Amino acid sequence: MVTGAGPEAGPIRVCLVDDHAVVRRGLRGYLELLDDIEVVGEAGDGQAALDTVAALETEHRTPHVVLMDLLMPGLDGVTATRLLTQRYPAVAVMAMTSYSEVDRIRGALEAGASGYLLKDAEADEVAEGIRKAHRREMPLGTAVSRQLARAFSATGQAALGTLTAREHEVLALIAAGLSNREIASRLVISERTARTHVSSILDKLGLRSRTQAALYAVQQGLSPAAPLR
Predict the structure, then answer these.
(1) How far apart (Å, rounded) are the C-alpha atoms in residues 136 and 114?
(2) CATH architecture of 157-219
(3) Domain chopping of the chain, boundaries
(4) Taking the model in full, what pTM does it have?
(5) What pLDDT, in 10s, does the model give residues 138-156?
(6) Which value, to the nearest 10 degrees, does the dihedral of the CA atoms of residues 35, 41, 44, 47 take?
(7) Count of Cβ atoms closer than 10 Å to residue 200 Cβ
(8) Is 12-141 CATH 3.40.50.2300?
(9) One fold for both 12-141 and 157-219?
(10) What phi and psi, each to the nearest 5 degrees, are found at residue 14?
């Protein structure tokens, strides 16, 4: 099975998933004005999204990015996100919803979403979010970032100053989406050592998962090109 869209040149292929046809029409109308983005499919619920992506795969038009509503009848967006990212690892799913509660944001990201935007985001913010998701960055809308920042502050996360220089480097690479094996290769260390660093980071920062670690790093402005010392 082809596991996702390849790196070939051309516009970013996008599939729109929302149970409101008017929302899909609005998004399509704007995105079709852009030279670097092509809408290749639409779906009105999670199961239809899975079916649509499967059909597009057979046509060799697997989407690079899926814009996924979270609250839909039938198969919900979070479950559809989890299934899509499992079946098509190269497809980036960006959650879009009207709700900015931290639990919803975390639920979507834990399910494999590459980013999270609110439906009241400006059109150019949505387009830039698609581009970031395609680059394997983590687009987070301004309101979403504020919510996460408050959540991290409210739960008393430990300061970055508790991490060693090497752990700063590892945390920045987690934020860039690298696996333990990729981190090991980048830093010329063993995969076991990379796992040890990740476990230590989660323990020191009081986080439960790599996704939360990535979010924390994004909030703190860590960059793999310029890790904190």
Answers:
(1) 7
(2) Orthogonal Bundle (1.10)
(3) 12-141, 157-219
(4) 0.69
(5) 777 666 666 665 555 544 4
(6) -140
(7) 16
(8) yes
(9) no
(10) -125, 140
